User: Fold Class I SAM-dependent methyltransferase from Geoalkalibacter halelectricus.
Amino acid sequence: MNQDRKVCWDENGETCCAHWHSESAAPPPKRVVAVDDAIKADAAYRLACEGTALLWRGDFHNARLLLQALARRTERSLAKGRVAEDSPAAAFHRQRLAQSQRARTLGMLLIPFEADHGVPLRRAPDVRQACLEAFGPMEEPYLASLRDLLGAVGAHEWRKKGVEIAALGARIHPHYGVFSPVRGEYLDLVAKAPLPSLDLAFDIGTGTGVLAAILARRGVARVVATDLNPRALACARENIARLGLSEQVEVVAADLFPPGRAPLILCNPPWVPARPKSPLEQAVYDPDSAMLRGFLAGLGEHLSPEGEGWLILSDIAERLGLRSREALQGMFAEAGLEVVARLDTRPTHRRAADRDDPLHAARAAEVTSLWRLRRR
Assistant:
């Protein structure tokens, strides 16, 4: 989930080296210069755009201000390059490229860390617990981007506070690197769809465990929740235990399906068939719809007779021209599945109403569906 290598630089007439840590799997910067509060934002932006990383030695809060200044300059630069797109797909790919450029530029502002994740800068907060949760234990000092640090701190706060889930009447606490269930519309679909059985269900790719918890709260006697991501497995187990559902829900490591058959098998795969640019994007982007295809291909042999597979999928990929409805239905047919029914809902998140979003038209028209599938 991360990349640890050496990064070296010259400082005060000496060559210094430290471990390089990147949660986005970014390679170590080839050029690093030590800077402090005296550097101007324009000069810092120019160096970052040239590929020179800035190792911060000044006041921590001033580093955050500099990052904000770099972000403003990056947005202005990207805005100048925006053009009218010929298609939603072109707009999507241009936005992805812009996001990548923005991440690369802002990732050039680096922070030093001690082996215990302490930050040896003036007015630096105590981020040791947040970094331990996100990065894991370290054996020696290292460098990482300020953006990675702020992401770890933000995730730590989300983990402490949790996300209120109306369908559960409780909070789910996401861990760093595990997709947070902030879009409640698809959770409501799972809470309302007619259950084919109360005996057993499989939740494929459980993430935080939220869907397994909803099924358990609806009265399903036993739920087997699977995932391959160690962070997701730990997160789901913690949430299930916190909700007092450990007797009903078993969280296991598996590549999609656990052994056996079930009368209900549920999956909420990544919705967009595109290549993730970092490990943290794998919950959103699914190259060539690999997880979707794997779920559909194996569903029939794992369903009990008359059982149902529930596929939760947004049509955003269709509206962006990345996958057609005909292609999706072709996957159903190829897997020997038929559609029993479909429950639809519209998005309620803020981005659907953001007219400044380059993908606004697609997001505003988006429909999220729960497809009820059976073997033919």
Notes: The radius of gyration is 23 Å.
